[in-house]
Amino acid sequence: MIDSLLDWYDANARDLPWRKQATTGWGVLVSEIMLQQTPVARVEPIWLAWLNRWPVPSALAAETQGEVVRAWGKLGYPRRALRLHAAAGVIAAEHGDVVPADVDTLLSLPGIGAYTARAVAAFAYGQRCPVVDTNVRRVVARAVHGAGDAGPPSTTRDMNDTEALLPEEPARAARASAALMELGAVVCVARGPRCTDCPVFADCAWQLAGRPAYDGPAKAVQKFAGTDRQVRGLLLDVLRDTNEPAPKTKLDLVWSDAGQRDRCLHSLLVDGLVEQTADGRFALPGEH
Ligand code: SF4
Known about the structure:
This protein is mainly alpha-helical. It has helices spanning about 1-10, 25-35, 40-55, 55-60, 65-70, 80-95, 105, 115-125, 135-145, 155-165, 170-185, 205-210, 230-240, 250, 260-270; strands spanning about 275, 280-285. The N and C termini lie far apart (about 55 Å). The site of iron/sulfur cluster (SF4) has 13 residues, from helix 9 and helix 12. Iron/sulfur cluster (SF4) binds near residues 142 and 204.
């Protein structure tokens, strides 16, 4: 199965800027944090702008948190910008401005979890370690276990299942990790997998089992319109567009439901994405 997958990946991998040979560990780390909850097409221009502006961790660490949140633009889930800023500070101060290659050291950085640490070790440094995201879990559930979709996540089981598929040779294993993710992103997609184009069709346990329907627990569907996430984004947009602290009356214009608006503003303050000035106005962190 893995041989066909690797051949397919060699011929079909998308030409993404962070996959280029010259990309540093820092470039890979930034891409992995940005890609966690945002589609490739939206990440690409912001990633290029970030790496151009902040080619090494110390350059990002020297910025204010507010400038980093501003440059995050509309990628969503902006706490990720603060996590990257914090990790950049530690990499600059304690690791010679070079992203560590070792999974345990990566895990010790602020805001770097099991997925990101292994993704950086594999994709930046060619190591053999299981890289498990939603797409990989779905591919493994179908191709290995013959289920229609992945059930609830289980870190240990998911990592063991994925590691069992990886070739022994580290560089080849790292490429297999990238190929599994790519297969889940473009062929073995959640709705309507393109099985006739799939390089592992002949070995896929789900095909061999007659494509049984998924019978696990229902998955939560993430909506956006009307959610606190949308309102938080609108409030941040106001502050991103100005270098002056904004009065509350300006923020009040973005959303009509005062209760939800105030709850969201409060949560942005708690998360450190917004700060209040001594005279009661609001600003991005470190910008007043
Ligand atoms: S054959 Fe279909 S279900 Fe099986 S791995 Fe390929 S795309 Fe996924």
